[in-house]
């Protein structure tokens, strides 16, 4: 891969691009893959992007983050800096059991309200997450223009007031 990213592998190029141009916590579309690699290689590039999960990268889709519209992704965590010499390289086929187990063991649910834990357990049992009304309202709010956002505050405050009476 020549140009701005030198002769990096496809996964390393994608990782470097996401780290430099998107950043943790930000949403993005896959349009950049076509820009970097051309339309004929965008499918391969998407597979290489998924391989980043084997070296600690976390990228959510609308399936794991219902606030995202279809076609968008969110860069949750940047893992190994795969474009730097001497770092582990992503591999096909997903992460190891040991890596996944360490991630599960690191989860701290102590401060999660019981109602949320019950929701989580239901999602685990069903192996899918249904978006909640609050997720849908948040998505609408996050897409709303600045002039419309005060209407959401008014709506929520009115509902809180209604419940108190």
Q: Rg, please?
A: 20 Å
Number of helices: 7
Strand order of the largest sheet: 1-3-2
Beta strand count: 3
> What is the H/E order?
HEHHEEHHHH
Q: What is the mean predicted local confidence, pLDDT?
A: 83
Give the topology:
Layout: H1 10-21, E1 27-29, H2 31-37, H3 42-51, E2 58-60, E3 72-77, H4 97-105, H5 114-126, H6 133-143, H7 149-164
Antiparallel strand pairs: 1-3, 2-3
Helix pairs in contact: 1-3
Task: Give the gist of this structure.
By secondary structure, the protein is mainly alpha-helical. The chain contains seven helices and three strands; from the N terminus they run αβααββαααα.
Can you characterise this structure?
- This protein has 165 residues and is mainly alpha-helical.
- The chain contains 7 helices and 3 strands; from the N terminus they run H-E-H-H-E-E-H-H-H-H.
- A 3-stranded antiparallel beta sheet has the order 1-3-2, with no helix packed on it.
- Helix 1 packs across helix 3.
- The longest helix has 16 residues.
Task: Note the main attributes of this structure.
single chain, about 160 residues, mainly alpha, three-stranded antiparallel β-sheet, 3 strands, globular
